[in-house]
Task: inverse folding
C-alpha cells in the first residue's frame, strides 16, 4: 500500500465480549425494522385485496412509512442528546414493537396507513440511534468490525424478507407479517435493558423548529415526487415536478438556514471535511445501486421468468448471501487498510456484475445469474461499511449523532432515487417488450455502478491526500 506499512492483524485492538454483545443487541433492533419493510412490500397486493381498494391506495402502506422515516431522521441527533441515546433506542424499539402489533389488528386501510406513518416516525430513530451507541462505545481501530455486524442486519433483512414473506403469505394472513416483529422486538428490548447504556441526556439547546420545518417539508416532498415519478411509465408533469420543486426548495432553504444558525438541527460544517463530504456523495450512489437492484431483480424473476413469490425469494437469497459474507470481512479490512481501497474494491465487483447482466443473452444460465447476483451482493456489501467508516473517521465523538443522522438521510434519499429511477426505466422500457425493458434497466444499473466506482476512487484519493485513511479516529492507516 504505497510502501507504507500496515499494522499486523495481531496488533489491532481487541474487541471485548461486552462490546460484541452491545453490537448484536443493536443489530437485532435494526433487523426488526429492516425486515418489516421488505415483508410488507411483498404483501401489498394481498392487503389491497383484503380491504378491496386500489393498488395506488395500498402503496401508501409502504410509501407512507418511507416518508415518515425521512421526516424523523433529522431530529434523531437532538433527541439523542436530550434524552440520552441509549434511552432513545430503547424507547424507539418498545414503541416500534407495540405499533407493529397494532398494525396487525388494523380494521381499515386508513387505520393501517396511519399506523404505518407512526411506525415510520419511530423507525427513523432506531437505526441511527443504534449506530451512535456503537460509535460512542467502540474505541479506535475497532469501529469497522463492529459496525459491520450492524450492517449485516440492515442489509440482510431486506434480502431475506421477500422469501420469508412469501412463505408466510402462502399459509398465513398478512397480519402475521406485522406480528413477527413482536417476539423479535421483545427479545431485543429485554437484552437492551440489560446491556444498552442508560445514560441520561444532557442540557442542550432548544430544537431548531424552523430548520425542522424546512427539512421536514423538503425530504418527504422529494421522496413523494420520486415515488410519483416512478409509479407510471408516463406520469403527468405537475404531480411530479411540483412536489420535487417544493422539496428541493425546502432543502436549499434548510441548508442556508443551517449554515447561518449557531445551533442548527443538523451540523452542515461536517461537510467542510473533504473525506466526510466525498464519502457522503459516494454513499448516495451506493444506496441508489443497492435499492435499485432490490427493485429490479425480483421483477426480473417474476415478469421475465414467470417465477412465483416463494421461488423469487429463493433466487434473491444468493445476493443476500454475498452481502452477508462480505459485510463482516469488509469491516475487518477497513480497520486495517482504511475505507478508500475497500470501497473501491466493492464497487469494482458491482461494476463487473452489472456489466455482465447488461451484455448477457436472452436466456442466461441460471447458475451464471446466481453467481452474478452473489458477486453483486458481495460488492454492495463490501462498499457500504467502508463508506460509513470513512465518513465517521473525521467526526469527533461528540458529533457522531449528527453524522449518523445525516448518513441515514443520504441513504434514504439515494435509495429512493435509485428505486424511482429504475421503476421509470422499467415502466417505459415495457413499451418495447419485457426483455427490452430489463436489458435497458441493466444498462442503467451498470451506469450507476460506474458512477459509484468513480466516486469511491475520488474518495480514496481524497483520503490519501488528507492523510486520513478512512479508519476511525486513531485507527491504522494505509
Result:
Amino acid at each position: 500500500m504505497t510502501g507504507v506499512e500496515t499494522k499486523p492483524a495481531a496488533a489491532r485492538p481487541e474487541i471485548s465480549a461486552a462490546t460484541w454483545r452491545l453490537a448484536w443487541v443493536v443489530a437485532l433492533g435494526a433487523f426488526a425494522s429492516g425486515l418489516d419493510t421488505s415483508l410488507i412490500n411483498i404483501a401489498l397486493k394481498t392487503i389491497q385485496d383484503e380491504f378491496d381498494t386500489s393498488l395506488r391506495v395500498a402503496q401508501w402502506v409502504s410509501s407512507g412509512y418511507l416518508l415518515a422515516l425521512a421526516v424523523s431522521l433529522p431530529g434523531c441527533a437532538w433527541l439523542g442528546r436530550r434524552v440520552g441515546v441509549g434511552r432513545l433506542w430503547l424507547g424507539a424499539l418498545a414503541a416500534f414493537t407495540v405499533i407493529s402489533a397494532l398494525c396487525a389488528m388494523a380494521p381499515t386501510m386508513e387505520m393501517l396507513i396511519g399506523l404505518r406513518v407512526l411506525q415510520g416516525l419511530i423507525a427513523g430513530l432506531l437505526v441511527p440511534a443504534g449506530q451512535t451507541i456503537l460509535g460512542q462505545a467502540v474505541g479506535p481501530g475497532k469501529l469497522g468490525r463492529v459496525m459491520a455486524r450492524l450492517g449485516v442486519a440492515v442489509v440482510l433483512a431486506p434480502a431475506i424478507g421477500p422469501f420469508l414473506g412469501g412463505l408466510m403469505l402462502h399459509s398465513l394472513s398478512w397480519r402475521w407479517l406485522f406480528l413477527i416483529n413482536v417476539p423479535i422486538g421483545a427479545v431485543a428490548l429485554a437484552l437492551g435493558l440489560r446491556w444498552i447504556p442508560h445514560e441520561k441526556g444532557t442540557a442542550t439547546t432548544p430544537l431548531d423548529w424552523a430548520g425542522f420545518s424546512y427539512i421536514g417539508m423538503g425530504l418527504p416532498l422529494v421522496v413523494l415526487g420520486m415515488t410519483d415519478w416512478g409509479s407510471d411509465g408516463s406520469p403527468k408533469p405537475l404531480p411530479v415536478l411540483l412536489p420535487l420543486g417544493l422539496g428541493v426548495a425546502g432543502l436549499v432553504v434548510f441548508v442556508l438556514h443551517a449554515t447561518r444558525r449557531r445551533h442548527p438541527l443538523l451540523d452542515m460544517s461536517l461537510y467542510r471535511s473533504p473525506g466526510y463530504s466525498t464519502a457522503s456523495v459516494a454513499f448516495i450512489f451506493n444506496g441508489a445501486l443497492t435499492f435499485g437492484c432490490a427493485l429490479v431483480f425480483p421483477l426480473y424473476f417474476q415478469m421475465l421468468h414467470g417465477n412465483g413469490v416463494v421461488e423469487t425469494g429463493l433466487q434473491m437469497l444468493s445476493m443476500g448471501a454475498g452481502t452477508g459474507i462480505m459485510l463482516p470481512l469488509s469491516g475487518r479490512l477497513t480497520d486495517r487498510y482504511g475505507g478508500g481501497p475497500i470501497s473501491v474494491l466493492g464497487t469494482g465487483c458491482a461494476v463487473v456484475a452489472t456489466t455482465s447482466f447488461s451484455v448477457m443473452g436472452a436466456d442466461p444460465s441460471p447458475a451464471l445469474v446466481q453467481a452474478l447476483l452473489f458477486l453483486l451482493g458481495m460488492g454492495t456489501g463490501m462498499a457500504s461499511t467502508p463508506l460509513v467508516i470513512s465518513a465517521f473517521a473525521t467526526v469527533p465523538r461528540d458529533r457522531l449523532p449528527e453524522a449518523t443522522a445525516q448518513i441515514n438521510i443520504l441513504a434514504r434519499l439515494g435509495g429512493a432515487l435509485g428505486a424511482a429511477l429504475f421503476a421509470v426505466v422499467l415502466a417505459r422500457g415495457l413499451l418495447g417488450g419485457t426483455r427490452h425493458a430489463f436489458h435497458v434497466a441493466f444498462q442503467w444499473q451498470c451506469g450507476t455502478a460506474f458512477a459509484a466506482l468513480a466516486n469511491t476512487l475520488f474518495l480514496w484519493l481524497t483520503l490519501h491526500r488528507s492523510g486520513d485513511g478512512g479508519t476511525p479516529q486513531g485507527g491504522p492507516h494505509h
Remarks:
- The two ends are 6 Å apart (CA to CA).
